[in-house]
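Document type: protein sequence-to-structure record

Subject area: structural biology

Format: plain text, a pair of labelled lines:
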Amino acid sequence: MKLRGADILARAFAAAGVRHVFALSGNHVMPVFDAALEAQLSIVHVRHEAAAVHMADAWGRLRGEPGIALVTGGPGHANAVSALYTALAAESPLILVSGHAPLDEIGKGAFQEMRQAEVAAPLAKASWTAQSAAGLAADVARAWREACSGRPGPVHLSVPNDVLDAVIDAPPMPEFRAPPAPVDPAREILEALRAARRPVIIAGPARMRDDARGLEEATGVPVIGMESPRGVNDPSLGKLAEVLKQADAVLLLGKRADFTLRFGAAFAQGARVFSAERFAARERLGRGGWRDEVRAALAWRPPAWQQIRSCNHPVAVCREVQRLLDAPDAILVADGGEFGQWAQACLAAPRRVINGPAGSIGAALPFAAAAQLAAPRARVVAMLGDGTFGLHMAEVDTAVRHRLNYLAVIGNDATWNAEYQIQLRAYGAARAHGCELLPTRYGAVAAAMGAHGEDVAGFEGLAPALARAAAAGKPACVNVMIERVAAPRY
């Protein structure tokens, strides 16, 4: 049977179990759009290439398998690449496929010619350009294995036009799944954790998505997941800094002693610190009393928050939103500067997707759309600031077209508040400038794109607005005016 390279690419993804591709059309990739019909791949067509990568990122985090982003070459590739950084820092498996100028035109000034593999390489685990239609299935299998193996992450593959258009005999499909990584806990680590009075395991983003809770239950050692750029000051981890100063043995599980751990200065002097990529001990190594202390410390929140009531403070907003997340299948998406930090500190859900160690913003709406596709029956709630909303506002249209009925809550303080707070702290109120935004009615903007949209000026209107949005049966955005307050610091 004769197939185009585009057909081989699409069938390779289908053979790997892919059913959805997050894409933005363009000259270079239209053969793949055509091939997707026979391969029965659903195209989730976005409004900006970076959004396609963000969606693939969220899919990878929630499903544990690579999400697939497809964009055109040149400027489309350049737009997409910026989102790879968020996925790389979050250790999220995804594959970015970019169209590319034809191989036989490289160096001649081809249309939208760019050294794409080199551009993406610093932001991906691997990055290369396909050289033939015959090798495309193997390229996909290699990308899949690279994305999933070791510490997961994004992989980039550029596919030239002439490779997609070439017609050859159908090649056999290779094996896509990588064998499971061996787990061999070092004797030294086991003995150190067993001997310690206050051991802890700190898991990086990828290891958090493994059975971290099961590891804690089996060993009795507290397992602490870290995925925020605020590190030891992550407001969702309570008194983490105090816990780490007490710990006498620390296992960094898929986690570096980087800036989030103050390059090791977060640990007590004399603490024994070990590193491992995987750890699967199933024997008791810790003490129940210490684990209870750690859990209480991480759950601690300032008592004064309980006194915040009828005002437009982020704490009060989160208290109303929590009612929507009290479901066994709920997913919380949190993104943005100050408001995103309040959401992470105040809200709990069985699963969550946040902007992650990269500290970037703007991914909330693409994240929420992919989360709703990955878990169609789940209640997906996205918490984001007004600055963040503006970065991918048009993806509301994507959600409407594809019936991805998440609920987005926009905390609107009419400013780039994280940067404004930096100005206040560093330079004083008299020199705080340039970060103002308008109190835009983003609910009306969302409604104009076909979503359910509401704008809430007074806190008393929030609860009924959330109830209407939750029952709308379509993507919903509730824009609530909030106080311009700093993120929690304790």
Summary: The domain at 187-299 is CATH 3.40.50.1220 (Rossmann fold). The mean pLDDT is 94.
